[in-house]
Design a protein that fits this description.
heterodimer, A: 3-stranded antiparallel beta sheet, B: 5 domains, 6-stranded mixed barrel, 28 helices
Chain lengths: 110, 901
């Protein structure tokens, strides 16, 4: 653990979860692996925050969960995006784009 | 839709938390397994992989806490979780929980019961409009009594001349026999001025209330208003009663309404059942007392209206009203000097703002003090219970140290653990509070047999569990939980973790001094309670042993009022003489007589002014004496000792010269150093000869300062037969056995007459000592509880100390220390906290002495014998409670001890 990995910016974890789940239904560990894999371990996902997010998103009705048997015959909870979740992902992606372009612009000046 | 989903989720989370928890645990387990697999694939050995995965993922407990918050149940969910934990805790250690709940239940229950009494007697205001602007007015007698009655013309002038009062009303109580004489029931009537209801702002539940137009002399029809309670109790809440004519003291009155529910006058003791216009008094006949004579409404030189109540103008203060009323009273005195002189003059007037109900006159302070005393006693008990629990919790914190340490170590936040501990205290306190409500109910039922000072029967107060009382119990439970839970909780989560998990206690050495301090507190509070019970018990004994100036044993009394059934004076006299002859002829009756008043009856004497031949009063001296009208043989029947001369005889009749027996006090005042027998004094225009002197019989309270007293013959002032009279019977055996016969004699003579009292004289005495009885009963009960709690506390601390020092003690025994030395060492360890507690307790008890002194008789509140005795008792209890664990320490097997550590 030589390299200190940045903590997730608040609120972005929800968006990333929604994005990953828009590809296919997935369990918590899988989501964690995906985020760390795709970001080449740049993003650290705290396990507590991850499950807290998952449960909160379920409460909001943006994702739903079901218990499935995995390939190697174990029970795991899979999360999947709902219709509302798809819409929310759109909203959050657009918001993120606006925010990051604004931040870029500020950093680019001077 | 989203809102609904959210809500449904939250509800599910609250209702089925176990399932959610299980699923979460499974989810986290799965996560861990996959992480381990990943590491194994990367080449780690399975054990090392698991270890690393655990470390990487962090504390599962903390994660669960984190996720739980996302369920949207927040603190409610946490709380429920904590409560479930407490449930497990209680199941694991039911003895501790039961003990805690029981002590708390008793403590909170006693406090709730006393609060209920205080609430009903002191803290509540009558249901009238803006009671804070009302004030009672009393004229001040020259004898210094602050609360004397007024005349009607004075009342009218006070009312009309005042600028600080927007209105003023007047009322006077009258005993009532409601209904036809044969089926009547007794009630309390209030004769009220016409503006009474409008001034108080009280309306009618049914019909209407009394208006000024109803209050006229010689009205074609006299009217009455019933209280809601009396209407319910006596008439079964029959709506048809309104508009009907009922007989009050055998005179017809039309019921015009029922007053608003809950209103029964302004006085705490005399709760009104029926209100009548004050000018309908003459219609009631002699039973209306002062108001029975229509001319009294024009006579300024009289005194009969008990209470005046005024409503202050919005901008007027009590001080302004007091100033103004004094000016008016003085001006009236100047204007009507003869009338003033006739009532012994009026010195002043007191404007007394209404603070809640009007307390029994002359007993306000005693009543307040008594209730404060009770409240103090129960508060001390609860404090003691809380100290005891804090001590037990500290002891348990030691036992649970490792468990708590582990919970802290696995990442549960300190705040969270503390909250869990406090939740436990809270749950215990709330269950204790619930039990307390049951305790309070039965305590109030038991206390219903007692009277507060001033003759306020607890049974008559609507004591019970009203919302205010319930709120009090709830608040007290919370407060107690914080009181006994906070310090142990703080101590538990403090301290180093490593040591704790290894088997020490968190906060380790901080406990011992704290626990000893708690023992001091317990011992101190216990001493205060026990000294209190000791003083009350000795007072009770002293009172029972005290010389009363008469012999109460074997005497029965029966009280009745012929005016209530419409008897005329002549008819009354005949009845009384026939009855006496009848009763005196009963087998086993030694003697019998009649009197307007007997000792310990309650109720006032009649005062009058006298002049004594050959005695010149000092300029400021008021020669007022109390008088009682009696039949022949009264003093002998009472068992009073006649010092000289003779007793009143049958021959002292209207046609014979007026004679009187006086008491020793009066003889000493006006005939100092010589015999008064044969001397003359005058009551108004009537010359009276002193024929005998009786020792000072106690009349109202044991330990009272005797006042001047004269006994006159009932036959010489026959109007007495028209008020309350008491038949006094001296029997040869147990007076209770004669009560049925006496009742039969009354029934045979007049079936319509109901007796207001029929009991043994000693029972009547008992009533007078009610506050002392109640105080000692309560104090002895709570004192015993306190003693047990203190013993438990000391035992707990010593056991704890011994456990903690096992190793040291073991080593010392191994090195040859004799058992006695060990025993002594353990005992002397407690000497300091117990001694400290005793000293503090003595100081506290002495400083409370002033409050208690009022209720003491024949003993000082600082009585050394009581203090020393109780102190010795506490030391013995402390030694015994310490001895058990100390002996166990002395018998420790060093090999065993050292091996087990």
């Amino acid at each position: 653990m030589a390299k200190a990995r940045p903590d997730m910016i608040k609120g972005t974890l929800d968006m990333l979860i929604l994005k990953i789940l828009s590809l296919e239904p997935m369990h918590g560990w899988g989501i964690c692996e995906r985020i760390q894999g795709i970001s080449e371990d740049e993003l650290k996902v705290n396990q507590g925050s991850l499950y807290a997010s998952l449960h909160r998103l379920t409460r909001e009705g943006w994702i739903r969960s079901e218990w499935r048997v995995t390939d190697n015959n174990r029970r795991a909870r899979y999360y999947a995006l709902t219709r509302a979740g798809e819409r929310q992902l759109g909203v959050e992606t657009a918001q993120w784009a606006r925010l990051s372009s604004a931040v870029h612009q500020i950093l680019a000046t001077g | 839709m989203r809102r609904f989903n959210d809500l449904a989720y939250r509800i599910r989370a609250l209702l089925t938390p176990r399932r959610l928890e299980r699923e979460l645990a499974e989810e986290l387990d799965y996560h861990l397994e996959r992480e381990v697999e990943k590491l194994v694939r990367a080449g780690l050995a399975p054990d090392a992989a698991r270890e690393q995965a655990r470390r990487r993922l962090g504390s599962a407990a903390r994660q669960r806490d984190q996720v739980r918050w996302s369920w949207g149940v927040g603190w409610v969910g946490d709380l429920l979780g904590d409560v479930r934990l407490v449930g497990r805790q209680i199941r694991r250690n039911p003895g501790f929980a039961a003990g805690a709940i029981l002590t708390l239940g008793l403590g909170i229950g006693a406090n709730t019961a006393i609060f209920s009494i205080a609430e009903q007697s002191l803290l509540r205001s009558p249901p009238v409009r803006d009671p804070g602007r009302l004030a009672a007015l009393y004229t001040t007698c020259r004898r210094g009594e602050l609360q004397c009655s007024s005349s009607w013309p004075d009342y009218i002038d006070y009312r009309d001349m005042s600028a600080t009062f927007s209105g003023m009303t007047a009322y006077s109580p009258v005993p009532l026999n409601v209904g036809a004489p044969q089926s009547a029931r007794l009630g309390l009537g209030l004769l009220v001025a016409g503006d009474y209801f409008s001034l108080l702002g009280v309306g009618a539940e049914r019909g209407r209330v009394i208006q000024p137009a109803d209050d006229v002399l010689g009205a074609a029809e006299t009217v009455a208003v019933l209280s809601h309670r009396f209407w319910t109790d006596a008439f079964g809440a029959d709506p048809g009663v309104v508009g009907q004519v009922v007989r009050l003291n055998d005179a017809p009155f039309r019921v015009i309404g029922v007053a608003a529910e809950g209103f029964d006058g302004l006085d705490l003791r005399t709760r009104a059942d029926v209100w009548l216009p004050i000018k309908s008094g003459p219609a009631l006949g002699a039973s209306a007392g002062g108001a029975s004579d229509p001319e009294v409404f024009d006579q300024r030189g009289t005194r009969w209206i008990g209470t005046l109540v005024g409503r202050l103008e919005p901008d007027a203060s009590i001080a302004q009203a007091q100033d103004e009323m004094e000016r008016i009273a003085f001006a009236l005195g100047e204007q009507y000097p003869d009338e003033r002189a006739a009532v012994g003059g009026v010195r002043g007037i007191t404007v007394d703002p209404l603070r809640g109900y009007i307390l029994p006159l002359g007993n306000e302070d005693t009543l307040r003090r008594f209730i404060f005393l009770l409240a103090g006693v129960v508060a001390i008990t609860l404090l003691l219970a809380a100290a005891n629990l804090a001590n037990l919790l500290l002891a348990r914190a030691t036992a649970r140290g490792p468990e708590i340490g582990i919970r802290l170590a696995v990442g549960a936040g300190r705040g969270r653990v503390m909250r869990q501990l406090l939740t436990e205290s809270l749950v215990l306190a709330l269950i204790g509070g619930l039990l307390g409500l049951a305790v309070a109910r039965s305590m109030l039922r038991a206390l219903g047999a007692f009277e507060l000072p001033g003759g306020v029967s607890i049974a008559d107060l609507a004591v019970g569990l009203n919302p205010r009382v319930l709120g009090f119990a709830l608040g007290l439970s919370f407060l107690t939980a914080v009181l006994f839970g906070l310090i142990p909780a703080l101590h538990t989560v403090r301290g180093d973790l490593a040591g704790t998990v290894k088997g020490g206690s968190p906060g380790g050495h901080g406990h011992a001094p704290l626990r000893k301090l708690l023992v001091s507190v317990q011992v101190g509070l216990c001493l205060v309670l026990l000294v209190g019970s000791g003083l009350f018990l000795r007072t009770l004994r002293n009172s029972l042993d005290a010389s009363l100036g008469f012999e109460p044993d074997r005497v029965a009394v029966a009280r009745f009022n012929l005016a209530l059934i419409g008897y005329s004076e002549e008819r009354g006299q005949t009845f009384v003489h026939d009855l006496l002859a009848d009763v005196r002829a009963l087998p086993g009756v030694e003697s019998a007589s009649l009197s307007t008043l007997v000792p310990f009856q309650g109720g006032g004497f009649r005062g009058t002014f006298v002049t004594v031949d050959g005695y010149t009063p000092r300029p400021d001296e008021e020669m007022r004496v109390d008088w009682v009208l009696v039949e022949s043989d009264f003093l002998r029947t009472l068992g009073a000792s006649l010092l000289e001369g003779r007793e009143l005889r049958d021959t002292d009749r209207v046609d014979a010269p007026a004679v009187a027996v006086i008491n020793r006090r009066m003889a000493e005042l006006y005939w100092p150093g010589r015999s008064p027998v044969g001397s003359m004094f005058s009551m108004g225009e009537t010359p009276i000869e002193v024929v005998g002197v009786v020792d000072n019989p106690v009349w109202a309270a044991i330990g009272e300062e005797p006042t001047s007293f004269i006994f006159l013959s009932q036959d010489q002032l026959p109007s007495a037969s028209n008020s309350f009279l008491t038949l006094v019977v001296r029997t040869t055996g147990d007076p209770d056995a004669y009560l049925p016969q006496i009742r039969d004699r009354f029934r045979a003579a007049e079936p319509g007459l109901s007796l207001t009292t029929l009991r043994a004289m000693n029972d009547q005495l008992g009533t007078a000592l009610m506050p002392q009885r109640m105080g000692s009963t309560l104090l002895v009960m709570l004192g015993a509880l306190a003693l047990i709690l203190a013993a438990v506390g000391i035992f707990g601390v010593v056991s704890y100390t011994v456990r903690r020092q096992r190793r040291d003690i073991g080593i010392r025994i191994a090195m040859g220390a004799p058992g006695g030395t060990i025993l002594w060492g353990v005992l002397s360890d407690m000497a300091m906290p117990v001694g400290l507690g005793l000293a503090a307790g003595v100081a506290a008890a002495l400083s409370l002495g002033q409050t208690v002194e009022t209720f003491m008789f024949g003993i000082s509140a600082a009585d050394p014998a009581t203090f020393i005795g109780i102190g010795a008792l506490l030391i013995v209890v402390a030694v015994v409670a310490s001895l058990v664990p100390a002996r166990a320490a002395a018998r420790l097997d060093p090999v065993e001890v050292l091996r087990s550590d």
